[in-house]
């Protein structure tokens, strides 16, 4: 199986898509409201938590299902998923939200 055909599997592209939605949500809320340190969590924080936590079982399924069968393309997909997750986590870390 090639990298591009593996990336078409839902368990491969869904975590990347979920991280992209988190980044888009962060950009929207930063643009609309600015960088705000709230005492109570808002909508953006809940979206962030649900999507980031929701990725974990999907990534675990992907690793269990595809890593033993096709290690090289599976590792590349896992690296893409990790980079996407780090891109979503970076603003939270940088702005200490």
Average pLDDT taken over every residue: 94
pLDDT < 50 stretches: none
Biggest sheet features:
none
The total domain count is 1
What is the count of helical runs? 4
| Number of DSSP-assigned strands | 0
Class from helix and strand fractions:
mainly alpha
Structure in words:
- The protein has one domain.
- 79% of the residues lie in helices and 0% in strands.
- Helix 2 packs antiparallel against helix 3, helix 2 runs parallel beside helix 4 and helix 3 runs antiparallel to helix 4.
- The mean pLDDT is 94.
Draw up the topology in text:
Blueprint: H1 3-7, H2 10-33, H3 43-66, H4 71-94
Features of this protein?
single chain, about 100 residues, mainly alpha, about 0% strand, elongated
Summarize the structure.
The protein has 97 residues and is mainly alpha-helical. It is built from four helices and no strands. The longest helix is centred in the first third of the chain and has 24 residues, at 10-33.
